Amino acid sequence: MSAGMMDEVEAFIEMNIARTPPFPLRSPEGLRARADAVRNHAKTAYGLISEAGVDVRGLDELAKQGADARHARTEKERLRAIEASAAAGNWLSEHHPVMPDDPGATDLVIDQVTFIRTFGAGDLLTDWNISSLHSWARYRLHASSETVEHVGQGRLSFFILWRNPSTRAIVASVGPRIIVNAYVAVEAEWQGVADWFFGGSEARGTVRVRTTVWAMWDPSVSGVVSDVILGSAGATGGFFGGDDSISLAVNQWVPGTGFSVPGHASILIEVSLLTDYNVTNGSLDLDAASGDFQIWLPFLRIRTV
Predict the structure, then answer these.
(1) How far apart are CA 74 and CA 70, in angstroms?
(2) Is there a contact between 91 and 249 (Cβ–Cβ < 8 Å)?
(3) Sign (positive/negative) of CA torsion 57, 60, 66, 70?
(4) What's the whole-model pTM score?
(5) Which superkingdom does the taxonomy of this entry point to (predicted)?
(6) What is the rounded average pLDDT of the residues 151-178?
(7) How far is 43 from 33, CA to CA, in rounded Å?
């Protein structure tokens, strides 16, 4: 691809894909006001039950000790997952998903992506490679919040530019092969005595792979042609706090629905690892960078009719 074409694609992404709403989806002032109200109510409740002879400090110290023990356990789980990442990678390299044949269609295999990027504030692309059958990324996502609810999405995207070589319009069905070796952990902090009166400690995340086709000839035309959930983790805090984790070891071909492409027109194909999360007084971490953790997109198949 020429430098000029690359610049055109990057400009298209910035103007039409990476755009954000010009207004906040949730009022920061309203979220802070609710959090302040919860703290004030908790302070009043603490005073009342302390006057009634309940050892609030002792109970909170008990909750903290339980949380400290839980932190030590979850750290061991994380290290075990990293240690097992090499074995998972070997297993994934030997597992080849079956792609069904369609005698009436024409297949084109694209074995190299155009480029790789992230979008979210918590996204971190630590390393990557683009080459034939070996395009991959090492990626981390961290999201956390102390009292205010934090809802967001992590997004690692592989982009492929493709031009219809025919003079006639065709229907293209895009299907990427995606390989994911990663670890997802969520943690909801301990609430102690506050849990008797208020909820609000929660951490949840869902990881999916989504393929979107963007029409380069008209930015208003696009379509999600496939969307598959790979796994999820969730925890609520309670008195002692809570946690959950999942190891993702996925080697999957993801077939997509058809997308109409005019003759000699170009489409931009986005294959994304999306992590939708919701954390309040908690955190979410997706690790696809430690050990042998990694995200690959070795090739993408386009079927045309």
Answers:
(1) 6
(2) yes
(3) negative
(4) 0.88
(5) Bacteria
(6) 94
(7) 15
